[in-house]
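On clarity, I found the account of how folds are encoded harder to follow than it need be. For illustration, here is how one protein appears when written out as sequence plus structure tokens.
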Amino acid sequence: MAQERKGKRASECDGPPALWTRRQTSMQVHETSAVVPSSTHSRSRSDSPIPPSEEPSLLSEEHLNIPTQERKELLAELADALETDKVGTAFWACLQVCDLDQLRELIRQAKAAPKFVSLLARECHALPRLWKQLVTRSNSSTATSPKEKSVNSRASGPTNQVRERDNSRCVFTKSSIFEVAHIYPHCLIRPTTPPNERTEAIQSFWKALEFFWKPEQIQQWRQEIFRSPNSPNDASDACFNLICMQPNIHMAWTKGLFALRPSEYNEDKSKLDVEWYWQPKQSHGPYDLVDLRKSPPSSRDLDEVDDYNIVLEPTPNNFARLKSGHRFTLETPDAQRLPLPSKALLELQWHLNRIVSMAAAGEGEDSDYDDYENERRPYTEKWVNQLQQPVISSEPDSSASNTPPTYYSPLPSYLPV
């Protein structure tokens, strides 16, 4: 397994670690875990999971990775505009979860300048890999060396807070074996790179998102993590961006094996419901080309992915696997001092974890991507940073039309068309 290859870690615990093994995976979640019956909360219809047999046919099932007819038609229109059915996995994955208005805008741009969108499609490859945070010694509940001590001390405040909030236990299994996991990736907060490279990586990530979600949505996500008016590019690492998970759950989360769909806070923000959705294994690899019209496999009723599962144990003689749609309640004893995980950042995670899964970015060795990225990173980041620098399109009829001229970024000379 990936975590075994990276070496063993000494996690905080008061007993032997729970097992998560391939072919026979069986972590147990007791009835006394963070699962709260839906009858104990008052929610709107849109926040409550509806059993598949009771779902109205007109209700969107996109949270199950089932695209609406409108999305299917728009993707077909985009394929026609690009004059190709084959695109990279990351671009295809982004189109499965992006805002429909932004998809319409991509179609408009593709019709006017198809090479521009084709290049964007190729360079989306980095997006899920920037989000795919690695479980490192600096942000997990591990023993530290003197060399690491100064690094960890900077986060001791938030780390101690999240341990207190989550009672030093995994929020899903209640196991005392846990790691402190980041929602918004640690690598985009304090990357192990020089300041100028860090800034470029962060800017590239957020600029890529702007092609797929509305500005107001991007701003809502950004303001949760970039809170300093004097340093707008410095992300905040605090309790609201942290959550306690068992190490093997943390690794599965990193690999995009599941995504958490947040609901609404209660009135005093002391509770937040999240729904667990397994993300199905894709039939393609991370470097394959995918038919733009292809629909992803559904997460409906999944209770394992790639031989990984979690066993719920309501009673000693009645075992049931954790299934997609299962609801957990995150709680805090003090919403002001120990805030819950940010709903906005969990929403960002809901989209990006599914993109990681759909793009098959969680598969294979991280070194494979590191070699690829080291070669292309300077060009990719330079190009993405240019995307928002407008130049007037040279479309032949733009001056003769009453429509304002369209703005596009130039195709960079250092990348092939």
